[in-house]
Amino acid sequence: MLHKQLNAFPEDFLWGGSTSAYQLEGAWDEDGKGPSVIDLANHVEGVTDFKVASDHYHMYKEDVALMAEMGFKAYRFSIAWSRIYPQGDGAVNPKGLEFYSLLIDELLKYGIEPIVTMYHFDLPYALEERGGWSNRATIDAFEQYAKTLYENYGDRVKWWLTINEQNMLILHPGSIGTLNENMTDPQKELYQQNHHMLLAQAKAMVLCHQMLPDAKIGPAPNIGVIYPASSKPEDMLAADNYAAIRNWLYLDMAVYGRYNHIAWSYLVEKGYQPVIEEGDMEILGQGHPDFIAFNYYTSQTVGESKNDGNDYSHTGDQHEIVGEPGAYRGSVNPNLQTTEFGWEIDPVGFRTTLRQIYSRYHLPLIVTENGLGAFDKLEDDGTVNDEYRMDFFRKHIEQIQLALTDGVEVFGFCPWSAIDLVSTHQGSSKRYGFIYVDREEFDLKELRRVRKNSFYWYQKLIASRGEIR
Ligand code: BGP
Q: For the packed helices 387-405 and 347-361, what is the interaxial angle rounded to 10 degrees?
């Protein structure tokens, strides 16, 4: 739809940036922090681990000052569960509690709204040893952890996100560490874990509303429009299958407390359906989000499954291998260009995604990740000329404005990432930030912070409420 006149971004729009604890903080075993599954996982060869990352744990004041200089209205970060509960449950670590308290105060000092992700991939290793999400006791541990966060930060934090990209944890478990190959039926087990995470999320939402009536809470999956590889009806059906399994399973449950019927029929067909205990559906029905947060990097394209052993293939995200015999086959989109890392760039798909989510759920939306990973270069004159990043954001922000004009309620944009950090699989050389962190994969140098060109660009954009792009 073409609009002659575009709606302006709301005055109180939450312009900001996003990060996660294990990718940014470092100090992986300091001040009583317990190890997480990320700390103890085998990390990809040839790239750095997460032990020091961007050393934000020690440099948070400088980092927050830079965010304030950019004009951030909000900052979305995650709390490392094992910094608060080194064993996942049991005794609290006061130093861990103190760190986030100081960080929150520092943000509020500059009028930056903290948006807290409670769990961003880094399950405490002690819980993993007891079965991780396969063990229903992890649901209780998460509820206890949530309660501790509400008690300690609820006076200052108004925005809460439950679980980052639960759908990616389930769909790409090998890459994030939720897959236990020793299990007899790992795939079935994953959907049991998924069920437990959904219960944990519902309980955290209920508790938040009980304890903090003024706070708002929502899920944070990765959502992207799914295109059919052609106008063939069978391809459209395949796209619909994948959308149900990748996107709507998670949001239908978070919002309506029920399994999406297409996703459920897939689980039954494959023999993956989880055991649902008595009372589970009541708990799931009680959790209601106040908004939906979602991460968007790219769209996906799939075609009809041929069931010939070749359904799996790379799609929009070069890292994501997509396909499911009998349901859909991964495909590439010939209409899109890709990033240096092979991820398809699809700003228009962003608008479609915003519209689709809003049409289904009618809840306010916030974008908690969107961004471009690139090999940025620090020039001899001290500049980082990341014009490609500005171009990427320009195009995506334009689509938010179009979606706003389409009537979609969007209240914030927190792109990935506020500052350079370590990529989930591709090390510290794959950079996303507005602020450059001067380190290499294996040479930490001084971890100096440098304002990239995109820093000044984003600063102007925020000051003009999204007008000057
Ligand atoms: C999302 C994760 C982030 C971040 C981002 C970029 O899926 O929530 O933690 O890693 O993707 O991905 P990558 O680091 O693989 O480039």
A: 30
